[in-house]
Amino acid sequence: xxxxxxTISEDLDQAHSALTxxxxxxxxxxxxxxxxxxNRKGAYILALRLAAIARxxxxxxDTISFKPAWYFYAGSARGSGGIRARLKRHFxxxxxxxxxxxxxTVNASLMAGFAVxxxxxxxxxxxxxxxxxxxxxxxxxxxxxCTVCHSHLLRRM
Length: 157
Ligand SMILES: [Zn+2]
Fold this sequence. Notes:
alpha+beta; six-stranded antiparallel β-sheet
């Protein structure tokens, strides 16, 4: 295994461990196996790897610089199409920018999703933070509709 692959597996494993410790079962899926999720609804973690610095202009805020690293975004998909449809959209590099997270996924070199049926995105943020292995990547990023979390975007400490 090369160094890059080892880093990939370590970051995703840490998130998996944090979720397992919190009693959340699941596994990482990529674009190749996302169909297996069927029509499950709930919440998910999207892991995305930035290979280079991404400078993201968020309307009404200063531009944020994201250094090369893995980032972990918690979102929900309770509508038709469920988590599978949402992850497939995240995995696409070409799309109309709609959410904060779209500005990162279009620059991501690798992505994976972790589906949690009937889960709540804020609980997933809480589980990752509680492991003390993750920290907030950018305050106010991706949680416009949330009054509980400081952010829905985390990274490894
Ligand atoms: Zn939240």
